[in-house]
Design goal:
alpha/beta; Rossmann fold; 2 domains; 7-stranded mixed sheet; 7 strands; about 35% helix; globular
Amino acid sequence: MLKMAVLLSGSGRTLDNFHERIQAGTLQAEVQVVISNVADALGLKKAENYGYPAFYAADNDAINSILLNYELDIIVLAGYLKLYQAPSALSRAVINIHPSLIPAFCGDGFYGSRVHKAIKKRGCMVSGCTVHFANGVYDEGPIIHQQTVVLDYEDTPDDIAAKVFTAECEAFPEAINRVNDKGINFFWDRV
């Protein structure tokens, strides 16, 4: 069972998903701490309600100072909207999710609705999400798991976003379970 820190910037929808799956016994992880770079993020209030230690930290140094107080296997970026640099001991243990099928529609500047608008503009018929390790460059770390969704001609960017988020709710826990089963090094060594 992986001990994880969750970093977020917003509403905590992914934290909700993790909590529900941990309670159901389908996610092989334990949330040790939740940290947000946004002081009034709804995700922090949710973390407190779930009984998780919850902190605001404005930058990498502040985040990493908090993390020193916890025994961790992984750090999960769950809607964390800044480039994060982990402490050296955990540099290969940061997991992120991106709302497209990497290598398409990814990199600096591609996040949230920007991704879905670009997918719509290009006329894509599939999209999805990619769970990957973070390596300090946006969306370049080893891929753990990808999940596709079929798009319709009439889908708006909001429709695409809803379909992709539904896929994320399945893919992120699946990826964490794969890391629990195979170990972190398996994914770094295979690429």
